[in-house]
What does this fold into?
Amino acid sequence: AFVNTSGIIVITLYTSLSLTTFAAFICFEQPDGSFTNSVYPSVECWAGDPKHSAMLGISATFIVLYPVAILVGTVVVACYYWKMLLRDPTSMRRFRFVFGRWRVSAFYFQSVRLIRNLLIAAISTLLPYDFPEVQITLLTLVLASFLTVQLLLRPWRVQGLNFVDAGLTVALLVLLAIMGASLCGGVSTIVCSGMSEPLSVLSTVLVGIAIAVGLVYALWQWRRSMQGSLSYDIFLSHHSGGAAVTTRLVKLL
It folds into this structure.
């Protein structure tokens, strides 16, 4: 139980903590041409500042200990899936956070999601902030690629979650497209005013539609589950444990 609970927490916080480990590499240019860290503005980046060098060392250490180590550990556990299933079924409960949400044919998909989340965190932080078009292009490529894989495999055990996951990814792709359209061009003769009013209205409408569709789908699934529920006076289970004896006793009665 402890391993499974700890794994659930780690997997849930994977993206946000990965972003935190990359914080030492996020630096912004100042008017005088120097670069300072986004979290600690008093620390000058890439200029031999011992504080920044120490931050880079600590950040690199925790990148290896957290995002990389968790990803490698998940891949290793997935590689031993069939051996654990045949030789030690109790270990499946221990590593339920890795396999519990996915169909048997896609038992490895937790590793795929961690790779996607790590790429999203790395692209958002490690690439220079003054090249947003590169960031948006790479993020779009990553999301579109993993969306294709997700639609082909449909890995979630609950079919509705496949649609929800795909819908959220499509919403992110739409937002990235809107952000790309609102970027300022590099031509100095063009006066950049950011996102235009029609584009702002369009993005607001699209976000509102996405939220409404999500709520309607959630209510529909809830109503469907309530209508399809059945109640039993006696439920017989042929579980191989102690329940089997109890079941036979109920049958005799």
